[in-house]
Amino acid sequence: MTAPFTHGPLRVWSLPTGPIQENAVLIAGEQGQGFLIDPGDDAGRIAALVAGSGVTVTGILLTHAHFDHIGAVQPLREQLGVPVWLHPADRDLYALGAQSAARWNLPFTQPAPPDHDITDGQTFTAGDLTLTARHLPGHAPGHVVFVAPGVVIAGDTLFQGGIGRTDLPGGNHPQLLAGIRAQLLTLPDDTAVYPGHGPRTSVGHERRSNPFL
């Protein structure tokens, strides 16, 4: 099983899934309760990760609704029996998941609509874990990041040495850069960044070396 990274009392698993290698993230506190974020593909592998971790998942949280981040939502929401949360500005993208995947000639299971909306500043609590959602559009209109002490689940906003694409529908380059500076670069330098693709990094490393910033 993929070993977790530890950040104080928090444990974080990042599992690359599907042909686009989107990172599904499982995060939990010391009490063993947590959230599954962006289950993009490979539902069986994600389910095995959850089972092996011993974490009780209390909800599926989505940073945004591009198809590579939502492809395993339906089977996992059914298997885990948990609600799905998404920012309302991304509901249109969510509904177009199958159509978007078809452009890449990739199989896709269109999930049923999300159960709940995410709002900027909303907190999500599972046991001793609390995540705070920060709206950070630019890659997608309803993109959010999830922040906990020492950790940010960044989706497709900030990568190791890169930033999210802004040439997709709903993208806005100045908006993304402004959001990264306001919502991510204001976090402590040692905050671990778990992106939607590629390896984890830190706020300080990206502040110092990311050529796009």
TrEMBL record:
Cofactor: Zn(2+)
Domain Metallo-beta-lactamase: 21-197
MF-aspect GO terms: hydrolase activity; metal ion binding
Stored InterPro entries: MBL_Glyoxalase_II, Metallo-B-lactamas, RibonucZ/Hydroxyglut_hydro
Organism field: Deinococcus indicus
Lineage top rank: taxon: Bacteria
Listed transmembrane segments: none
Pfam families tied to this protein: Lactamase_B
Keyword set, alphabetical order: Hydrolase, Metal-binding, Zinc
Range of residues in the leader sequence: none
SMART domains for this protein: Lactamase_B
Segments of this protein annotated with the region Disordered: 192-213
Protein name: Hydrolase
PANTHER family membership: HYDROXYACYLGLUTATHIONE HYDROLASE GLOC
Basic and acidic residues composition-biased segments: 203-213
